[in-house]
Amino acid sequence: MTDAVNPPRNPQPEPAPGSGGYGFPPGPPAQGGGYGFPPGPPRQGGDQGGYGYPAGGEGYGYGYPQQGQQPNPYQQQDAGAGWAPAQPAQPLISSSQPDWEAMADRSAAERRRKKLWMLGGGVTVLALLAGGGTFFLLGSDGDGPGGADAQPSTSASPEPVDSKSPAGYTATVEGDATLLRDSYGKAGIRLGPDFQVGPLGKRFQIVGKGNANSYAQSAEPVVDVTKSFTVTARVYSSGAKGSRIAISQGDGESFSFELGVNEVGGKQAWIFRVQTGDKGAAATTRTVTAEGPTVLKTPTMLMATYDAEKKTIALYVEGKKAGETTQVPPIWQAPGPLQLGRSKHHNIWTGAWQGALHNIKFYDTAFTPEQAAAYKEGKLGPETKPAHAWLLT
What we know:
This protein has helices at about 100-130, 370-375; strands at about 75-80, 80-85, 180, 190, 195-200, 205-210, 215-220, 230-235, 245-250, 255-265, 265-275, 285-290, 300-305, 310-315, 320-325, 340, 345, 350, 355-365, 390. It is mainly β. An eight-stranded antiparallel beta sheet has the order 3-4-7-16-9-10-11-12, with no helix packed on it. Strands 5, 6, 8, 13, 14, 15, 19 and 20 form an eight-stranded antiparallel beta sheet that branches.
């Protein structure tokens, strides 16, 4: 390209015979180099780079380092045949004038390269958002750095590293990326195809897609529902409608208990429900509902308790009691294991979880309001340890 007026010519004297020419040291003429590339044997066929590209199509040319056998992103791509080989080198032009057209081409190529980088970054961000990636903000639920029950007890499963050392913690059993490791007991939880482990800072969470494969289950029941117990988990629901069950137990005709989300009065609410009959009828269920707190896309610490002596169930949200139901008949001990991400209703799986779960724990006692608040603040006494725990943070 020109601006319609050619620059003035300033002819240079001819170089001395045998010299390198215009500033290059004397020596035999370089072979195969061209435009500043070091001499070397001439390349055959289409292996010559031309216009500053290294020979053979390697690297990116114009000062970019060669990266073994990487394609030139600016060469035309042949659909179905991969990257096209570099075009043969153009003959060198001996002239005292700058090659204005080549300079314009280089400038245009640089602008295209920058645009490709910007477009690539934008596409990556959009892809992550479209994939439903979910990340919690770490909370002090009694098990983070400084949590009172952060030191797991000895178990038959691989010995966990002290949870105060995040870099050493593993969420799954060694050698099996689909089996969640129980840090306190022996109950591994097998992940379904669409319930996968994902990063959470230096720790881990599991993320479900809200379909029939977004579940996980243990090999056998984890909770003895004939006795008092507490279940707690940090949850994140991205399902805007319907029932979304984070934790339940039982795979027969109905569940024993379930903890998660249900629609109440046309709005989503946190719920804890237990079954007291073996047929799953509404008349034999007891439910505690937490209405008011935001459910959708809100990281929340849920806790549910059953006191077998007082015959009460309670639901806590972020360490505060949201509701309680009294005069609860004994919970029906449904056959089947612990479930994550679904629940059994009238012999049908329901409540597929869409979102993430982590920091799941079971205790063989019913927490008091004071213990629930202490757990949330990470101040639960060291004498109170969980019977089972997965995905600690």
